[in-house]
Amino acid sequence: MFSSEDFGFGEMRGKISTKCEESLISMEKFDFENQFSATDFGYFQDEFLAAEQEYSFSKYQLQQDQQQQLISADELLDDHRYNLVSPPLEACLAEIKRLDEAPTSIQNDVEVVKKKEVSFSLASLGLLYRHGSGFKRLRGDRIVEPNTKDKSMSNDQVAKDHQKQSTEEILRIAGMRFIHSSSQQAMVSHPFQWSFSVLLPEETKNVELVELLLASAEKVGFRNFESARRLLNLCDNYFSSGARDPVQRVVYYFREALREKIDRETGRIASKSSSRGRNHERFDLDKAMTVPDMTKIAFHRVLPFSQVEKFAGIQAIVERIGDSRKVHVIDLRIMNGVQWTVLMQALASRRDYPLELLKITTIGSADSGNFIEETGKRLSNFASTMNIPFSFKKVMVSQMLDLKEDLFEFDTDELVAVYSSFGLSSMISQPTQIEALMRVIRGLNPCIMVVAEVEANHNSPSFVKRFTEALFFYGAFFDLVETLMERDQANRSIVESMYTFEAIRSIVADEGEERKVRHVKIDVWRAFFQRFGMEEIEFSQSSIYQANLVINRFECGNFCTLDVIGKSLFLSWKGTPLQSISIWKFL
């Protein structure tokens, strides 16, 4: 994680403009020095969250060879550079070993696996590659550190010094073992072989559990469904009778998703809505994510990523709009709108160029109308307390194909900014919708567009590649939840069993148009945005500084890291990238 010394902020502060300096200082004083804590943005967010409690919401990469070619929305939907036939799982996992630059003996074994006539892309291993050779190299920051003490120590003595492995580390060790057991060439010396003997008993059990899951997924890829089902049944013997740890929980939900996929493929269930013995319709994840509820609010209050996104993104907007007296922000997915209280605080600090109007427009549908109205009222009330001239507008459409430029109200000389927090990936399964949205945004000619998205490839038509990427991604996510939320919290149970499980089910069990959860990595978005004349902008040191201030306020800050790669910000948990933030201008 970057520190202020890494960026030379003492020197930087003397160079940035007076306006940015005043905004930065004002935001720091208000949001951090006096008000901010690890679980609280400040009094303005408490006011918003309290208001939300009164209001009921119970209604509820494609990075092949670094190709930067332009891609269409249809290519976002399904990248045909992928082979549609799933490769054996050990082939995907074997590539991890090669990318981690293991010793020659390992590389030789990988070559044996690679000699199998299998076509597979490194894109599905993008997250694993960056974790292994970008953020946390096995050779530099080894997952299981060799013991520097006398090698003659007994296993019991070594175990005393053992540190519990993270969820991602258990998954990786299981993957390495799966490769080893699947390889045609026996490995006399395996760099991880000794480490298995010093795993705690529960960790060894978890490694074996993950191996069963991987073996079952490979059988599904080969359409050997009965064998896959038998392997899944064996998983039952490994689950703890009491509270399950993150490894067991992530395996449990992937096991259930695999069972559902098998049931569909074998005709035991006929449709998405009649999934595996349930008598109710599937949880509408996309609809639920557009409406704030107390579970999501509680989760985002303890999640550093959410707050880093807001402060870094808003700081970028403040810098881009400069001295404009009229500012119009278009939010594609406003939720509770708390990020705009941060913008108001920054704009209120301007002295030489007082604001004449701040207008916020959000895009919604009939289902979101009520909560958008409530959000608008709270923002208006807060603007009044800050003496900011404010206008809140909403553009309601049933689908993005109906979105037109003339639905937005514009004043003379106002500067437009667009903010998209996870608002684009939800439309990847509907290429005409996202194309229509981007054409309208292009026509509005904003001075900046802030984009926050999941940094993962969950969009491959290859089942095994999609499964592998998702397993490691959600393994890190469950580890994050384990750290941030107590096991007995009702909100944690809802986050895992409803929101996260539904995403896993969609990625693993759904195919075609039914597969709504489709995440792609930043390189895919870069190529897509180029089609609309967009150019990525670097984050200023002020924005990066804001992001690091937020991270450092959390007790879990050592696990949450901020990396600047290219021009984007990447937020990672224990080395695994989970989210990207980027800013764009239109040429």
Task: Explain this structure.
The protein has 587 residues and is an alpha/beta fold. The protein folds into 2 domains: 285 residues, Vaccinia Virus protein VP39 (Rossmann fold, 3-Layer(aba) Sandwich), CATH 3.40.50.150; 262 residues, no CATH class. Helix content is 49%, strand content 11%. It is built from 24 helices and 9 strands. Strands 1, 2, 3, 4, 5, 6, 7, 8 and 9 form a 9-stranded mixed beta sheet that branches. Strand 8 and strand 9 form a beta hairpin. Helix 3 crosses helix 18, helix 3 packs parallel to helix 24 and helix 10 packs across helix 12. It starts with a helix and ends with a strand. 48% of the residues are buried.
What distinguishing features does this structure have?
2 domains; nine-stranded mixed beta sheet; globular; Rossmann fold; alpha/beta; disordered N terminus; 587 residues
Summarize it:
It holds the Pfam family GRAS. This is DELLA RGL1-like protein. The chain is an alpha/beta fold and 587 residues long.
* CATH architecture descriptor text of the largest domain: 3-Layer(aba) Sandwich
Please tally the β strands and state the result. Answer: 9
CATH class designation of the largest domain? Alpha Beta
- Count of discrete alpha- or pi-helical segments spanning 4 or more residues: 24
Protein name: DELLA RGL1-like protein
InterPro entries: TF_GRAS
Keywords: Nucleus, Transcription, Transcription regulation
Region (SAW): 509-585
